Amino acid sequence: MALPARVRADACPGVFATHDAADGALARVRLPGGRLSAAQAGVLASCAEDLGDGSVHLTSRGNIQLRGLAPDTGELVARLSSAGLLPAPSHERVRNYLASPLSGLSGGLLDVRETVFELDRAVCARPELAGLPGRFLFALDDGRGDVAGEDADVCWRAVDSSVGAVLLAGRDTGERVPIGEAVDVLVRKALWFLEVRGGAWRVRELDLPAGPRLPTSPGVPIGPFTRDDGLTGVCGAPVLGQLPAADLRALGEIVVTPWRSVVVPLGTEAPGLVTDPDAPGLGVSACIGRPGCAKSLADVRADARAVMSRVPAGVRMHFSGCERRCGRPHEPHVDMLAGSEEYQKGMP
């Protein structure tokens, strides 16, 4: 059964249309496939230091947010544009693309890194697709089943080294197309959604036949990994998804994952990141809470930090300041809602 149509405006933030938070304006910078060059990382770090709160904040879609900004984002727009991070202003809020973060580095059936950039160019070339809701999500899965489990509206998932399945809202449509046609198929599916959506924001809100779900796998493993070429990279996670600007600059080229972690393609140095898979509290996340959000009932980040050392590795726990539960993970987790009995029992 279809979910009720949305009745309020889509207010997903971007850079041109920021969100007015209690700690200042919030800007979301879209990163196709989570990829960020060393030069772009340096620009974002400088923006965070000069214009924001001094940190970048990772999102559950592999993007980056800047907080504590002034209402006038003209300088921010200029800096990000010069770094190639705002290639299509008209489509800025709909450039939501996941791609398997380790694709082309380690494992997977094929490399989708260039395909995600082809998809971005194709979407931005269609003026009508600027009308997609800001929550509409594309995904390209290299066959390992990681981003295919992230509830993307339209997804191409490799089933062998050249052909992939087309998924709608995580469900297999039965269509199989080669990688060379993946971009065209995903664009056509997005155009179809615009025609039939009514007031819906997501494909899952439409009344569609429910196809099967293909097996999925968890996100990137934390710690060092051996690349297919024999070199070494590392995956790590900043505490509560917040990375100081100086650490971002030191990391250089990275891939931001939709699990608030980071892939460093080369080397094992990872300043600002937890790289021990057995570290307590590694699975703890939180919304921004007080004082950054006026709706929050508590400083949930301080509360989360207070209990992290007691949360065993492998346990997912999310702290929310209000019923909206911003940033909660898709996978099963302990729901720590400010003001609830569970929340009170979990505090020191």
UniProtKB/TrEMBL annotation:
Coiled coil: none annotated. The keyword Oxidoreductase applies. GO terms for molecular function: precorrin-3B synthase activity. It comes from the Bacteria. Residues 26-74 form the Nitrite/Sulfite reductase ferredoxin-like domain. Pfam families: NIR_SIR_ferr. InterPro entries: NIR_SIR_4Fe-4S (IPR051329), NiRdtase/SiRdtase_haem-b_fer (IPR005117), Nit/Sulf_reduc_fer-like_dom_sf (IPR036136), NO2/SO3_Rdtase_4Fe4S_sf (IPR045854). Keywords: 4Fe-4S, Heme, Iron, Iron-sulfur, Metal-binding, Oxidoreductase. Its EC number is 1.14.13.83. PANTHER family: BLR3264 PROTEIN, FERREDOXIN--NITRITE REDUCTASE, CHLOROPLASTIC. This is Precorrin-3B synthase. It comes from Amycolatopsis thermophila. The lineage of its organism: Bacteria, Bacillati, Actinomycetota, Actinomycetes, Pseudonocardiales.
